[in-house]
Amino acid sequence: MPKDAKSPKKLRSNRAALAHKVGYALRHPDRVGPYVRRAGRDTWLRLRHPDHVGYYRAVMSSDARRSPEAAVGSRTHDRWLALGQIQFDYLIEHGLRPEHRMLDIGCGNLRGGRHFIDHLDSGHYYGVDISPDILIAAKRTLTEHGLQAKLPHLTLTGDLRLDFLPDGHFDVVHAHSVFSHSPLSVIDECLAHVGRVLTDTGFFDFTFDRTEGTEHQVLREDFYYRTDTLLTLAARHSLHARFMEDWEKRPHGQSKIRVSRSPLPS
Ligand SMILES: C[S@@+](CC[C@H](N)C(=O)[O-])C[C@H]1O[C@@H](n2cnc3c(N)ncnc32)[C@H](O)[C@@H]1O
C-alpha cells in the first residue's frame, strides 16, 4: 500500500475529475498507456454487458486469464500472501473460532479464504463469487494447500440476495475488496439480505474505498464512498453499523465497516 493512501489529500481527491486525471498523467506518464488500454476494454465490456455483474464478471475473466493473483488486486505473490494474512489476523483478533461458520462474499482465489478454511472446522467455510474463472483458480489454491479434507463450499452466484442460504446460519460474513468494485445498488442488495443469514451475535465486515470528498468511480471498476453513505444504508436495512477504527492502522488502503443485527460490544 502506498504510505499516503489514507492521507487527507488522497481522501479528498476525485479520481474521476479531469483535473485529477491530467495531473496524474503528468506525474506518471508511464501509466497513461495502461490506463488508455483499460479504458478501451472498459468501453467494450460495458457495451457487451450493460448490467454490472455481467460486466465485472467479464473484467475478472480477462484479468484472471493473465494472473488470478493480479485479478484479485495483488501485483506480486508476496503481496497476495500479505493481503491474505492481514484479513486472517484481523478476524482472529476479533474472535473467529474453528466452530464458527463463515460466509466469504467475493472470495476470489482464496487469498484470505485459504487461511479461514484451514482454521475453521470442516464444511464451515462458504465462499461465493460472481466469476467462474476465479472460482476455478480458487479450487487450484485449495488443492495446492492440501485443504481438500476441509470440504469448503465454493459457489457461483449472480447476485447478493443470498436466497440459497439458510436463516441465522453464519457467525461471520466477510467481503474484502468487493464493495470497492461495486455500485451502490449491489451493496444495497447485499445489506438488504445479509441480516437474514447472520446469527443473532454474528457480524458482517466489509471493506470499501473511502472518500471524504465527492463520491466517484473510476471506469466501472473502482468505487469511492463516504462512510456516512454506507452507515446510513445499513441503518435503512435495520442493521447496526460501525466504522472499524482499528482496521485503519493496518497496511491496507481501504477502510472497514462492521454491521450486525443486534448491537455488538465495542
Ligand atoms: C479484489 S477481489 C478480492 C477477492 C477476495 N475477497 C480477496 O480478498 O482475496 C474481488 C472479488 O469479488 C468478486 N466480486 C465482485 N463483485 C461481486 C459481487 N457483486 N458478488 C460476489 N462477488 C463479487 C470478484 O469476482 C473478485 O473475485
Could you explain the architecture of this structure?
With 266 residues, this protein is α/β, with parallel strands linked by helices. It has a single domain, classed as Vaccinia Virus protein VP39 (Rossmann fold). Helices cover 42% and strands 18% of the residues. Strands 1, 2, 3, 4, 5, 6, 7, 8 and 9 form a nine-stranded mixed β-sheet that branches. 37% of the residues are buried. The protein binds S-adenosylmethionine (SAM). The site of S-adenosylmethionine has 24 residues, from helix 4 and strand 2.
Please summarize what this structure is.
Belongs to the CFA/CMAS family. The chain has helices spanning 8-12, 18-27, 32-48, 52-66, 68-71, 77-93, 113-119, 132-144, 184-197, 227-236, and strands at residues 102-105, 125-129, 153-156, 170-175, 198-210, 216-218, 222-225, 240-243, 255-260.
What characteristics describe this protein?
alpha/beta, Rossmann fold, 266 residues, nine-stranded mixed β-sheet
SSE map:
Blueprint: H1 8-12, H2 18-27, H3 32-48, H4 52-66, H5 68-71, H6 77-93, E1 102-105, H7 113-119, E2 125-129, H8 132-144, E3 153-156, E4 170-175, H9 184-197, E5 198-210, E6 216-218, E7 222-225, H10 227-236, E8 240-243, E9 255-260
Parallel strand pairs: 1-2, 1-4, 2-3, 4-5, 5-7
Antiparallel strand pairs: 5-9, 6-7, 8-9
Bound molecules: S-adenosylmethionine (SAM).
S-adenosylmethionine (SAM) binds next to helix 4 and strand 2.
Protein name: Methyltransferase
Keywords: Lipid metabolism, Methyltransferase, S-adenosyl-L-methionine, Transferase
Family: Belongs to the CFA/CMAS family.
